[in-house]
Amino acid sequence: MMEMETLENIFPKKVVLKRNNKRNIEKLTYSVTEAALAITTNPQNVKALIDMGYLGCLKIGEIRIPKAEVNRFLNNYMNQDLASEIAKYREERKK
């Protein structure tokens, strides 16, 4: 039996290579939202932790939190409940 000619055999697919102009650079900082995702909380809590001095940040147009700072925070405050501290902080700000 003779194989039928298909369009793929007649017109082979062109391979299109997309050139990625972006360099693979590791991000060293998180946005507030990314930091919140990393420590499994919400962005409002991250902002409160920054304002309270628990979490350091850089302000370069927007707030950026170094990954090393997130790791330091997690190591230093492991097994501590900061929810009550955040609640007290928010109550004080309302006044």
Rounded average pLDDT = 85
The chain-level structural class is: mainly alpha
Helices and strands, in order, run as HEHHEEHH
Which band does the percent of strand residues land in? Answer: 5-15%
List how many beta strands DSSP finds.
3
Q: Specify Rg, calculated over alpha carbons.
A: 25 Å
Q: Walk across the major sheet and give the strand order.
A: 1-3-2
Largest sheet: 3 strands, antiparallel
Annotation field: number of helices: 5
Q: Low-confidence spans: pLDDT under 50, at least 5 residues?
A: none
Helical fraction equals 40-55%
CA-CA gap between termini: 88 Å
Shape: elongated
Summarize this entry quickly.
The protein has 95 residues and is mainly alpha-helical.
Describe the structure.
The mean pLDDT is 85. The protein has 5 helices and 3 strands; from the N terminus they run αβααββαα. It has helices at 7-10, 32-38, 43-52, 67-76, 83-94; strands at 29-30, 58-60, 62-66. With 95 residues, the protein is mainly alpha-helical. The radius of gyration is 25 Å and the shape is elongated.
